[in-house]
Amino acid sequence: MLNHFNHSHPLRPIRVKAEEELICSGCGVDLSGPAYKCSKSNCEFLLHSSYFTLEAVIEHESHLDHPLTLLSTPLKHYRNKRFICIACGNYGTSFDNHCSSCDDFADLHVGCASLPITMKHVDHKLPLKSKLSLLQFKSLELYATIKT
Q1: Range list of β-strands (E), the chain
Q2: Sign of CA dihedral 91, 89, 63, 36
Q3: What is the DSSP letter of 18?
Q4: pLDDT tens by residue, 81-105
Q5: Nearest Cα to 24, choosing from 52, 3, 5?
Q6: Residue 148 pLDDT level (bands cut at 50, 70, 90)
Q7: How far apart are CA 81 and CA 89, in angstroms?
Q8: Rounded-to-integer distance, Cα 141 and Cα 132, Å
Q9: CA–CA distance, 38 with 1 (Å, rounded to integer)
Q10: What span, in angstroms and rounded, lies between the C-alpha atoms of 148 and 143?
Q11: Which of the pair, 46 or 5, is modelled with greater confidence?
């Protein structure tokens, strides 16, 4: 049994099948594969195994001005206790990489923070690179990296 900063009870490792339709308490996305479950029978806390060892503070290309601190839930003063991710533009209600130094509050889903900066695709010759676009509600775009 292991302890996690975001939960008061010990967690145990499990393997989740997609058809079980269980939701991760850290990101709100369906679980499949290795995960952690609360050891208490009446507690439904579940966590992707990759989220068990998240860094408490990260540096991310989406917000180079300041480090982002991992929060277990969005700050209380956010409307409806949800944040807007600076990478994808979607709401988040659980784990949040947050910058408290900025007036406009920079928040990033843990899943978006783990996306690769560059990737290859079989249908495209050049590598694709993620780019944050402030003009499109800070949504994550993919564009071809052009060599000059």
Answers
A1: 2-4, 7-16, 33-38, 46-48, 57-60, 63-71, 83-84, 91-92, 96-99, 106-108, 118-121, 124-133, 139-144
A2: positive
A3: G
A4: 888 888 888 888 889 899 888 766 7
A5: 52
A6: very low
A7: 16
A8: 6
A9: 9
A10: 15
A11: 46
